[in-house]
Design brief:
Blueprint: H1 2-16, H2 23-33, H3 37-54, H4 58-78, H5 84-105, H6 109-112, H7 116-128, H8 135-177
Helix pairs in contact: 3-4, 3-7, 4-5, 4-7, 5-8, 7-8
Length: about 180
């Protein structure tokens, strides 16, 4: 039970942190409803989870959750002089892009796997979690990076050849139009 209390205290601290964009909204809701912020947050999480499991257009909600906050924080990271936050969010976007590409080519999995959008959303929340070894770090170093390193030179050669062919084609087009 100590671990649960620790998580609850950390969550309450985050919900009360005035530097966070959501704090003012939770304060307003707390004043209007006379419910503690933690209950409002828990209810919101429960509603979103149920909607992702059973709601219409759950795909859109899942993708908004997977894009909106990370995009906002990525833009803030670009504006800082630190490199570590840039790397953290670039890693997230590599995982997001890889997952989205695989999902596109195997679209039928969304119909086969029960509660797919809820599972995907939980996965992306794990990937963006503000912890040291979040899902992005784990997936990048355990899955993506080894595959990338194994095939990097082959892909570099293919991209180099394709770039050369595009340059030759563009030069040919511009020579004919002159």
């Amino acid at each position: 039970m100590d671990k649960l209390d620790t998580y609850k205290q950390q969550l309450e601290k985050e919900l009360a942190d005035d530097s966070k964009p959501w704090t003012k909204y939770f304060k307003l809701l707390e004043e209007k409803t006379n419910l503690p912020k933690i209950y409002i947050f828990s209810g919101l999480v429960g509603f979103v989870a149920l909607y992702l499991a059973f709601g219409y257009a759950a795909e859109i909600l899942c993708n908004v959750i997977g894009i909106a906050y990370p995009a906002y924080i990525s833009m803030k990271a670009v504006e800082t002089k630190e490199k570590t936050d840039d790397t953290k969010w670039l890693t997230y976007w590599v995982i997001f892009a890889t997952f989205s590409t695989v999902e596109f080519f195997s679209l039928y999995i969304t119909r086969i796997i029960p509660f797919y959008w809820l599972i995907k959303c939980v996965f992306f929340i794990w990937c963006m979690a503000p912890i040291e070894n979040n899902g992005s770090v784990v997936m990048y170093y355990k899955v993506i990076r080894p595959y990338f390193l194994k095939h990097e030179s082959t892909v570099d050669n293919l991209l180099g050849n394709a770039t050369d062919q595009l340059k030759k084609g563009a030069e040919g087009i511009f020579k004919k139009s002159n």
